[in-house]
Amino acid sequence: MSFALLDQIRSIFEGDPGVRKVADDPVLSAELLMLFRMILADGSVSESEMTAFRRICRDAFGIPETSIDSVIEYLNEFGYETNSSQAIAQFRDLDIERRKLLARHMAEIAKADSQLAGSEMQLLRRTLDLLEISPADVVKPQG
């Protein structure tokens, strides 16, 4: 049997591996939830924002491309039970670099459609305050 077939069989019995990864990591769940809320902050979902979200899921968190739609479904269900303040609370005890990474990812999503709506800026500002980081921390260091 091929490994791909074994993975498919295991996925049927154990669930999607990307969703399991997110569900088993409360901090990752909270971060993805905040990124998804940033996508929705301006009232519309643009293709460029979804592309940025998918890239962050894949590159920063190692979520397989084939799992991202299932992860989004999970976040939709999980998101109704968690507000932004509860999600941000997961980050308060993390080191500053991890908190900066969340802010950078949120800014990346907000800028993806080449428009920064007031509601996106408000969500980002509130998040920075709750994470106790400055706007300057969102700018990636050069070099």
UniProtKB/TrEMBL annotation:
Residue ranges constituting the Co-chaperone DjlA N-terminal domain according to the UniProt record: 33-138
Organism: Mesorhizobium delmotii
Protein name: Co-chaperone DjlA N-terminal domain-containing protein
Coiled coil, from the record: none
Origin: domain of life: Bacteria
InterPro entries: DjlA_N (IPR007791), TerB-like (IPR029024)
